[in-house]
Amino acid sequence: MLTALPLIATTLLFLLILLINVPLSKLKRGLRPGELLIVFIMMLVGCSIPTMGLSEQLLPILAGGRYYATEFNRWEGLIFSHMPDWLAVKDSEAVRCFFEGLPKGGRIPWAAWKAPLIAWLSFILALYAVMYSMMVIIRKQWMEKERLLYPLMQLPEEMVESPKEGSTINQFFKNPVLWLGISVPVVISSINGLHTYFHFIPEITLNSGFPIFRNTTGVYMQISFPVIGITYLLSTSLSLSLWLFSILGTIQTGIFNILGYSIGAREAYCAYSPSVSHQGFGAMIVLVIFIIWMAKGHLKDVFRKAFKGDKNIDDNDEALSYRAAVFILIFGLIFMMGWLVKSGLPIHIAMLLMVAAFVVFIALTRVIVQGGMLVVKSPLTPQVFTIAAVGSNAIGLSGLTALAYSFIWCADLKVFLMPYVAHSFKLVEEIKMNKRLITLSILIAVLVSMAGSIYTVMKLSYRYGGLNLNQWYFKGCPLVPFDYIAEKINHPVG
Fold it and tell me: What is the DSSP secondary structure assignment for residue 413, as one 8-state letter?
């Protein structure tokens, strides 16, 4: 499960403390809580890049468009004839082997990937720099002025807490309720795992649903143990709103279906109901406007410090100086804008796409750090919003092609860097260290994770064939953006 609190990072911290740090503590060589949190922060940030965060969106889409192009879908003429050469992999043999595997003795054709990887990684690094600078700028407002709770960070903070004098294990790990809670999903998952291989063992079903409104929609339920555990940390008002508004959205969808009212078909990566999708995105826009309005005084201080060097404004406790953060933000946005225009988007469309994308990034990050939402997803993608706002005719063929490739960084947003950086700043408050060092730790984590995940995906894909790996990332994900854009080209709107 892809979550705002990566289960793999939390599990590794759990095992690191129990299996390594506790024995080392008996020898007086254990890691201190601050050191454990630095390790966790690097794992946390690193988890934002593999799979859906970057590597298994980037590589399959760069190669998948041409691999899945056929005479029937006519992508070659509709899409790929309107794009610059550096935007994706052109070599047909490199593309084929990525999905089907290399012949015996073959080598990864890095030369075919060089131009698109350099181009895309420069854009992604600029995006990450902008996200990081935004979180530096807003940190004091959220943590000190609004005092947001960051509920997801309660778990790692409890895990690394120092044990009492004379003990090597803290109270968190001594709590019998913890182990009882762990045993339930372990037992159920083990039974279901055994059922996969031994069918005489009954499966424990964890999902169900039933149709309503004359079978035009339905109510679907799934038991997720990580979500149940984290929801314990949420406020009751937030827990109530989650299921209440979900039910209200389902009722609205059912009523519209019975009345025959529709604003259009469901779009790529959007919520189950088009009307709910657009309403949800409108709510996100209002939320971001509210966030900026609430922070207007703080933002004035930040920019006054950045441009005038006001000595009355203290930024010594930030991961970057306000001047550095503001200039990284400005130049990062300019670079991203220029890159998108160079890829084929008209400048006003590039601006609209970036605004929509950062509405999603900021709104989801706020929901995560304030509400403790473990699983989040935008109800509407920036691409769908952009086309709905101006129409596909106003974007042009080159612009629509560039919009297809923007699915790499701002479409199926279940995992992205910004909330992990925000959580890192919360954790670092527990560490008595120079806050500027956290920037170096996060930079190392990003670069190592990026290089490692991209190399691993390339190695496995060319060795075994991507088609033999994860079905979604190699057979589903590469099709969605081009199917969507081809449909908009064939049936233009606006």
Answer: -
- Residue 406 main-chain phi, psi, to 5 deg: -70, -10
Q: What is the pLDDT of residues 425-444, one digit of tens each?
A: 999 987 777 788 899 999 99
**Which of helix, strand or coil describes residue 203?**
coil
Query: In angstroms, rounded to a whole number, what is the distance separating the alpha carbons of residues 418 and 28?
Result: 36
- DSSP category for residue 265: P
By three-state DSSP, how is residue 194 classified? Answer: helix
Cβ neighbors of 156 (< 8 A, separation 6 or more) are 10, 13, 37, 40, 427
CA distance 387 to 492: 10
Per-residue pLDDT at 470? 92
Residue 464, number of CB atoms within 10 A of its CB: 13
59 within 8 A of 117, measured Cβ to Cβ:
no
Q: Please give the C-alpha separations between residue 461 and each of 182, 253, 478, in angstroms, as whole numbers.
A: 35, 41, 14
Of 319, 350, 357, nearest to 335 by C-alpha is: 350
Q: Which domain holds residue 150?
A: 7-64+110-161+171-461
> Residue 83 domain-assigned?
no
| Tally of domains in the chain | 1
What tokens were used for 456?
Answer: 């691993």
| Angle, CA of 352, 53 and 135, to the nearest 5° | 65
Residues of the chain where predicted confidence (pLDDT) is lower than 70: 1-2
- DSSP three-state, residue 46: helix
Residue 371's Cβ-count burial label (10 Å; 0-12, 13-18, 19+) is buried
Residue whose token pair is 């600078």:
133
Residue in 319, 322, 328, 280 with CA at minimum distance from that of residue 436: 319
Residue 437: the pLDDT is 86
Q: Between the CA of residue 377 and those of 53, 221, 269, 475, what are the distances in Å? A: 13, 17, 9, 21
The alpha carbon torsion through 217, 222, 227, 231 (nearest 10 deg) reads 70
Nearest to 345 by CA among 124, 136, 82: 82
- In a domain, residue 347? The reply is yes
Query: What is residue 1's predicted lDDT score, i.e. its pLDDT?
Result: 56
Q: What is the CA radius of gyration of the chain?
A: 24
Q: Is residue 472 part of a domain?
A: no
The answer to whether 350 and 466 are in contact (CB under 8 A) is no
The pTM of this model reads 0.94
Q: Is 468 a member of any domain?
A: no
221 contacts 208 by C-beta, under 8 angstroms: yes
Q: Which pLDDT score is estimated for 122?
A: 98
